[in-house]
Design brief:
The structure holds two protein chains of two kinds. By secondary structure, chain A is an alpha/beta fold. Chain A has a six-stranded mixed sheet with strand order 2-3-1-4-5-6. Chain A starts with a helix and ends in a 27-residue tail after the last helix. By secondary structure, chain B is of the alpha+beta class. Chain B has a domain of about 60 residues. Chain B contains 14 helices and 19 strands. In chain B, strands 7, 8, 9, 10, 11 and 12 form a six-stranded mixed sheet that branches. In chain B, a hairpin with a 2-residue loop joins strand 16 and strand 17. The radius of gyration of chain B is 22 Å and the shape is globular. The chains are: A alpha/beta, B alpha+beta.
């Protein structure tokens, strides 16, 4: 894929005129697209249970790679603007996560998405990979796990400015929510934007609750500690260098 | 003289962002609700650039001498906070005869006393995309302005000059982080332009191989040099076998930077200079005075008036506590940590950043020095006098017209400069 093709693909998924496109992560779009495999079906939700743009809610799709993209496409057909937040990298070989299928699904569905001609003010559906932190790097593997951080998403204030009053998190209830996403939801809740969990397998919705106790926060912190991951930095002015107090180091657990 | 450029038009902003992503590999264009790219550039008078470049080169030369002196004076390493596990590795690296490429970045702030440096990043400075390729994109919108040199090209050439044969370069970084990899991608692309293969690697992927080279565990590539974007103090956290490998590699492969760079990275460096007996006149003229916390940890007021609290290893303004500027919650955390771990913190005399006219933004200009020569610059700007993770990146462009008024004033005897030339500056309030 040429640079121009990458740019076109990115522009399809993150059109510059849409206010939510600013948060789309470009990294995946800079890689060569792979051979595309058949896509899995989108989760089937009864229309009355599926999120609707009229709810004035943003959606976060936390499902396994390709399923997240497919679900995002289904939401696009309902009037949401899918915003890919896949912030993973590729190494020279032996990558811990194979991201080819995710990129392939973005390529395959691009024309379909473009044809929808979504309104620029469509509410966002942020797409992330629920498997982003899975796996443990063996020796000689390239650790391309990744995390989400509050700065990867619009703040509660920005959401409200865009007419969004709540968040619907689509994820299966049978797997525990990763602490990094919990931190994002907690951040939103602190600033007045509540979240609802929607299990696509059952259509059941329930309010997202968090353990805001010291023990809960400590548990999340310890998770980051032991998984060898550290706080992201927002800038490039040496900002890529972490503080040693965060310990460990991404990329080599 | 330094000033903000005219703001980019909306179309320019979009095009610059798009090109920054796909032409330069700038993969973190957004953080929180803000673009990481400033909607304007900074204009710097060529004379000011020459002054900064000369000053940075002098500081770099002094730091190189200091590093050599510190290699022979291990008794100071605990004061600097060098991790014990790194002592042997650094000692071996310093003793080797390998000609290492060196690069560092000095962060200059315009203050009411002239230019002041908040820190040098002598180990793993970033910002190469912004200082080179991104700056050229911005300059294409303002053809009347010139670009400073590109530090990524200079670094790639410095690495290439140390290489012999066809083996590649390992781009060592924390692989899980896109914003780390983007820097290595950029350096790798510049090496590629010189015909040198570059390979992404985590620090534990490299092992010594026969023939004085290294080999990468992921793809078996033979490695003849290392470009490291992984903080040296983190090497101490690697498993024992990986640390042993780094010890061996340090003695045989050129590294940008060698691990001995860690000796001049800590902000506590000025604390050991008197005992070390090294004079650093240029560095001392721009770096605000530093004090250890010591027993002050028990004082009711930890940070005396006129001082700033900083972490020894902090970067990007992380943990910096400036009275009236730092958010209260964060300041409380920093103070608590400093009382608990005083050797990991220090007090630095506060300087007063002068906001640039028109936009009222505070700026920090990072000046790169590669192998002793000034090699480029870029800026970070912030609405408050603290350049931290929320500051925006801005291209620094050279504007010859900013020198004209100075010349005219000098001719008419109106110059008010009284400080040494190297730390002088003047602020322009006219956007262009």
């Amino acid at each position: 894929m040429s640079g121009g093709d990458s740019m076109t693909l990115f522009a399809t998924w993150a059109p510059e005129a849409s206010r939510w496109s600013l948060w789309a992560k470009p990294v995946l779009f800079t890689y060569q697209p792979p051979v595309v495999l058949p896509l899995p079906p989108a989760p089937e939700l009864a229309p009355e249970r599926a999120p609707s743009p009229g709810e004035r809610a943003a959606v976060v799709v936390d499902m396994p790679g390709v399923q997240s993209v497919v679900c995002g496409m289904a939401l696009a057909e309902r009037g949401f603007r899918p915003v890919p937040l896949f912030n993973t990298t590729l190494g020279p070989g032996n990558n811990l996560h194979d991201v080819a299928a995710v990129l392939g699904s973005l390529v395959v569905l691009a024309d379909q998405l473009a044809a929808l001609r979504l309104p620029l003010d469509a509410p966002p559906a942020f797409l992330i990979d629920s498997g982003r932190l899975q796996g443990k790097p063996a020796p000689a593997t390239y650790d391309n796990r990744w995390m989400v951080f509050p700065q990867d998403f619009p703040s509660a204030r920005a959401l409200r400015a865009g007419g969004i009053e709540s968040v619907i998190l689509i994820r299966r209830d049978d797997t525990p929510m990763q602490p990094d996403l919990r931190a994002v939801l907690r951040y939103w809740k602190r600033d007045g934007v509540a979240s609802t969990l929607l299990d696509p397998s059952t259509g059941a919705r329930r309010e997202a609750t968090f353990d805001a106790s010291f023990l809960g926060l400590l548990t999340d912190h310890m998770f980051s500690w032991f998984s060898g991951l550290r706080r992201n930095s927002a800038g490039g002015f040496g900002g890529v260098v972490p503080t040693p107090t965060a310990t460990g180091g991404g990329g080599w657990a | 003289m330094i000033a903000c450029s005219r703001p980019f038009t909306e179309d320019e902003s979009r095009a610059i962002r798009r090109r920054a992503i796909f032409e330069c590999g700038k993969l973190d264009p957004q953080a929180y609700d803000e673009s990481t790219l400033a909607p304007f550039a900074l204009r710097l008078a060529p004379s000011a650039w020459r002054s900064l470049a000369e000053l940075a080169e002098r500081c770099a030369a002094e730091l190189a001498e200091t590093e050599s002196a510190l290699l022979a004076a291990r008794e100071h390493w605990p004061t600097l906070g060098i991790p014990r596990r790194m002592h042997g590795i650094i000692g071996d690296a310093g003793a080797s005869q390998v000609p290492h490429p060196r690069f560092m970045r000095f962060d200059f702030h315009p203050t009411d006393e002239g230019w002041r440096v908040s820190e040098v990043n002598a180990d793993v400075p970033g910002g190469f995309i912004e200082a080179g390729a991104y700056t050229r994109i911005v300059a294409s919108c303002m053809p009347e302005l010139d670009c400073p040199p590109d530090p990524a090209k200079a670094l790639a050439q410095a690495i290439a000059a140390r290489m012999d044969g066809r083996d590649g370069v390992a781009l060592v970084h924390a692989t899980s982080y896109t914003d780390d990899q983007q820097v290595m991608r950029h350096i790798g692309a510049e090496l590629g332009r010189l015909g040198i293969a570059a390979h992404f690697a985590a620090p534990d992927h490299l092992t010594p191989a026969r023939g004085g080279t290294g080999v990468l565990a992921t793809n078996g590539a033979r490695i003849a040099a290392i470009a490291r974007f992984f903080p040296a103090e983190w090497i101490a956290n690697l498993p024992r076998a990986a640390r042993r490998d780094w010890r061996a590699l340090g003695a045989r492969l050129p590294q940008a930077n060698p691990l001995s760079a860690l000796l001049i990275q800590p902000k506590r460096l000025p604390l050991v200079l008197p005992a070390l007996g090294v004079a650093m006149p240029a560095w001392s003229s721009v770096l605000p005075a530093v004090r250890a916390i010591g027993w002050r940890r028990l004082a009711p007021s930890l940070v005396p008036e006129g001082y700033v609290l900083k972490p020894t290893w902090g970067r990007v303004g992380d943990g910096v506590c400036i009275d009236g500027v730092t958010e209260r919650r964060l300041a409380r955390q920093s103070r608590w940590s400093a009382r608990a771990f005083p050797r990991e913190w220090l007090l630095q005399r506060r300087f007063h950043s002068v906001p640039l006219g028109g936009r009222g933004v505070h700026a920090c200009i990072g000046v790169y020095v590669v192998d002793g020569r000034a090699a480029g610059a870029y800026a970070r700007v912030s609405p408050r006098p603290l350049i931290d993770g929320r500051a925006q990146d801005a291209a620094v462009l050279l504007d010859a017209s900013l020198d004209a008024p100075t010349v005219a004033r000098a001719a008419s005897g109106q110059s008010t400069f009284t400080r040494p030339v190297s730390t002088q500056m003047e602020y322009d309030h006219v956007g262009r």
